[in-house]
Design brief:
Endonuclease Iii, domain 2, 12 helices, mainly alpha, Endonuclease III, domain 1, about 240 residues
C-alpha cells in the first residue's frame, strides 16, 4: 500500500473492501468483548447517555446517570424537571447547562411528538434536539438492533489512518465505511474501531508495535514500534 500525492491510497476499490473486512475480522479477534461502553436500560436511557457523553468520558457518564434516572425516570419526568435540580445532577459532566437544555429539549420532543417513546428510525431520531447521525446510530444499533456505523472521534481518526475513509465530514465517512463493511457488521465494526482507538491506536501515541492490524495499516510506524514499549502503552 502506498499513498498518492493527494493522500489517497493507491489501491482498487475491491482491494480496499477486502482489506477493510480483514481489518474487521482481526479486530473481532483482538476485541471479542467489544460493546457499547455506556450503561443503559432501554432506548431512552441510551439516548440521553449518548447525548451526555459529548466532551466527556463514558466512565464519567456512567457515574452520573444512575442518579439522573433514579430522580427522573422517563421522558415525561425529565421534560418537567426543575432545570436547576437537573443542572446539579449533571454538573460533574461539564457543560452542564447546555446538557440540561439538550436532554430536556429532546425529552419534551419525545413527549410531544412521539408519545414519550424513542423512535426506531434514523429519520425521526435526527429531528430531536441535539441528536445527530452519530447519536442516532448508537441508539439504533444498540437499543433496536438496527445496524449502523457510529462515526465518533475514534472511528473518524482510525478511518483516516487506515486509509478507509479520508473525508472531514463524518456523514461521508459513515457512507464510505458502510460501502466497505457488510451491513450486518456495521454496529460491531463501530464498537471494535472504538475499542481499538481507545486501547491501542490512541490519538497522541499509538502502540504500533502491539497492533493486530499493523500489516493492514498504511500509517503503521507513526507510533511506538518497539514491541515491549508498545505493549506497555496498550490500555486494558
Amino acid at each position: 500500500m502506498s499513498r498518492t500525492a493527494t493522500g489517497t491510497l493507491d489501491e482498487t476499490a475491491l482491494a480496499r473492501t477486502r482489506r477493510a473486512r480483514r481489518i474487521n475480522r482481526a479486530l473481532a479477534q483482538r476485541y471479542p468483548d467489544a460493546h457499547c461502553e455506556l450503561d443503559f436500560a432501554g432506548p431512552f436511557e441510551l439516548l440521553v447517555a449518548t447525548v451526555l457523553s459529548a466532551q466527556t468520558t463514558d466512565v464519567r457518564v456512567n457515574l452520573t446517570t444512575p442518579e439522573l434516572f433514579s430522580r427522573f425516570a422517563g421522558p415525561a419526568a425529565l421534560a418537567s424537571a426543575d432545570p436547576a435540580e437537573l443542572e446539579q445532577v449533571l454538573r460533574p459532566l461539564g457543560f452542564f447547562r447546555a446538557k440540561t437544555r439538550a436532554v430536556q429539549g429532546l425529552s419534551v420532543a419525545l413527549v410531544e411528538r412521539f408519545d414519550g417513546r424513542v423512535p426506531g428510525r434514523l429519520a425521526d431520531l435526527v429531528t430531536l434536539p441535539g441528536v445527530g447521525r452519530k447519536t442516532a446510530n448508537v441508539v439504533l444499533g444498540n437499543a433496536f438492533g438496527v445496524p449502523g456505523i457510529t462515526v465518533d472521534t475514534h472511528v473518524h481518526r482510525l478511518a483516516g489512518r487506515l486509509g478507509l475513509a479520508l473525508a472531514d465530514d463524518p456523514a461521508v465517512v459513515e457512507s464510505e465505511l458502510g460501502a466497505l463493511i457488510e451491513r450486518a457488521e456495521w454496529t460491531m465494526f463501530s464498537h471494535r474501531m472504538i475499542f481499538h482507538g481507545r486501547r491501542t491506536c490512541m490519538a497522541r501515541r499509538p502502540a504500533c508495535g502491539a497492533c493486530p492490524i499493523a500489516a493492514l495499516c498504511p500509517s503503521h510506524g507513526i507510533g511506538e514500534l518497539d514491541p515491549v514499549k508498545a505493549a506497555a502503552l496498550v490500555k486494558a
